[in-house]
Amino acid sequence: MMSRSRPTIDVSACLLDPEQHPGPGPLCWATVFGTDHPVELEVGSGKGLFLASAASQNPAHNYLGIELSRKYARLAAERVVRLGVSNVRVWPGDARAVLARLVPDASVRAVHVYFPDPWWKKRHKKRRVFTAALLASVVRALEPGGELHVATDVEEYFDVIRTLVAAELRLVELTVPPCKEPEHDLDYLTNFERKFRIEGRTIHRALYKMT
Ligand SMILES: C[S@@+](CC[C@H](N)C(=O)[O-])C[C@H]1O[C@@H](n2cnc3c(N)ncnc32)[C@H](O)[C@@H]1O
Questions:
Q1: Residue ranges per domain, the chain?
Q2: Which entry of 10, 94, 105, 117 is annotated as an active-site residue?
Q3: Which superfamily does CATH assign the domain made up of 18-210 to?
Q4: For residue 119, which of 31, 36, 94, 103 sits 20 to 30 Å off, Cα-Cα?
Q5: 13 CA → ligand 1 middle, Å
């Protein structure tokens, strides 16, 4: 019988190997991307819809997705390779550690945190990615005028994030531009945004800028 498995896609140009960057020094973006274009980070990039859309719409920016799940990191890299864009890299690993240890100071144009896992149970809340420590890393990483974009369907988590950011005087809140009406299946910010908008859930969004 013929095999139905899909041919393996070579993701080596997109999916980074943390073993090749053992640290402890920070990453060099020009080495990671091969250009010195502005860098945007996505924390928890899932299957990579945002990375793929943003990178094809903004070819003069570089995008790094940081994704804890190896499986999703690979899926995101496959999506990007299939699309044929060269300005995306995916780092399989914990965004908290990457931001704390490997991102150079004031080197990032934007950080995107979309639909972070809520970890509802009290004993699991420490697994949440958006904490005071992550915010401190984001503030250190952003260049002057750099942006932090957040979206979540979880009101309680959104309140936590807004309270944390409100205490950080270097970030000012901006009005979030209205989101466009999707015309097709890939016309959403992320996979989770698509799911939640179709379900009719309220989505909480915030945008902050570094002074
Ligand atoms: C609810 S999904 C959202 C994925 C994507 N942002 C979206 O909106 O479709 C949360 C993602 O964050 C990833 N994640 C959770 N903790 C993380 C961490 N500490 N570092 C990086 N990724 C993380 C999960 O593996 C998962 O893919």
A1: 18-210
A2: 117
A3: Vaccinia Virus protein VP39 (3.40.50.150)
A4: 103
A5: 22
